[in-house]
Here is the input.
Amino acid sequence: MRYSFAYQPYRRPFRQPVRTAHGVWTEREGIFVRIAGAEGRAGYGEIAPLPDFGTETVAEAAEFCRRLGAEIDADVLAHVPERLGCVRCALGFALAEVGEATPVAPTVGAAKRLPVAALLPAGRAALPVLTQRLEAGYLAFKWKVGVGRAEEELPVLDDLLAQLPAYARLRLDANGAWDRRTAERWLERCAERPVEFVEQPAAPAEVDLLLGLAQDYPVTLALDEAVANLAAARDWQARGWPGVFVLKPAIAGAWSDVAAWIRTTQADVVFSSALETALGRAQIVRRLTAGDGLTRRALGFGVGELFGDRRWDGPPVGPLLDAAWSDATDPLALWNAAP
Ligand code: MG
Here is the structure.
């Protein structure tokens, strides 16, 4: 089966610059793809690279798209290297949409609502935000740590946990910032407390340290920066990683591969946003809410208003996400707005 193929680079400033471990990020750059069959039926996808996470760059993805040409085969994914996880994600979704006899079934009746984790700002500013988000109905919270010194942040942890009702859980994300001593201090402090997990306590390259910490402390640990694509997640699994894998479906690879890996290995996964636009996020959320139980943990899709434009952000995200959220996004509108 041959399909027509087109791609459209986009560039969209963030409403407010996004601070990351690698500096300040002012705009989202990516590529939309469109695959169409003979009857004019079209499927869309989004390539949303995070080169700081070790994905392909936008330029590499654009070059790959250019070389694909104006026509592709249904088995095109077999020819996309695993390293190009963002390209694989976009083509996988677009092919699934164009190849399906009916559009992804609206999950009427079986509609699943998935909890979303609320993001708390670094430092003491987390405390008032926790109060607000609890009132809004959130049950899971994520707090950025390793931003200030441990002496300043550890007392805030105590204050946050003191505010946390028994039904709620707190995740900590160190973004790989801690050395061994700091990590040990934190993990001692977290033991036996309502901490759901500690994300990336040390840098991805610190393989032995991460495996050792996971073994030595009762707190669940999660890998994020270390598992940018499915190949990396498989490697850590082979090394015996006993904790959580934070996967960003937009960069991890083709959704069908991600889902098959989780089903086969029963990996404990948190799904999270790569700050993609509403086009890519709607496709991911649609799969997650289709009810196949790939995760029991709150989603990391509470990224707020990134672009300050409903078309690009999708509807506001609250404590629960369902298929209606995805249905509110029209990929064609984004495709047309991209240039
Ligand atoms: Mg993280």
Notes: The chain has a mean pLDDT of 93. Residues 113-330 form a domain with the TIM Barrel fold (CATH 3.20.20.120). The chain has 13 helices and 13 strands.
